[in-house]
Design a protein that fits this description.
This protein is 49% helix and 15% strand. By secondary structure, the chain is an alpha/beta fold. Strands 2-3-1-4-5 form a 5-stranded parallel sheet. α5 packs antiparallel against α7.
Amino acid sequence: MSRWPALIHLTGPPAAGKRTVAVALVEEAERRGHPMVLVDNHLIARPIFTVIGTDGVATLPREVWTHVGAVRRAVLAAIEELSPEGWSFAFTNYLLEDEPASERGVQGLRDLASARGGTYLPVALTCDIEVLIGRVPNEDRREHQKWIDADAVRADLERRRVLVPDGALLLDTTSRSPAESAALILDALA
């Protein structure tokens, strides 16, 4: 039985490398003959973040997430209704335990994979906290409107627990290259 098309869900804390690994994943999947599209969580949030002037440091109004959720639902519906059957997708998210929106997000992607006749593969990225905090203020993160306040990220990670979806492949990105991580993820689908 083919495990393609696949919906690969990269989860983990800010700066764990979700987007970086996803970019490498899309490139390697394409090289192996599997068309894949990156749906980075900031691709979905960017339209809202742009029109409110997010700087990656200031606290966002809670209402932002209602609008981001509407964009997400539209993207998922477009994938289900309009995207080519053989396409796979790589999603990225920072998920939190005891957050109903995180659980709904996981279930929504599981349902989407099922509706498309494909495989849902959650991948939980971890990283040494000091390495992770050192990555937070990276210029690339600023350009992608990501959270760049290292002190706030550290405080958030000390206060809340990252959700690891059931059945997730666990990958430590502390010293593993994005290409190595991508190969491991694709090998898990073989």
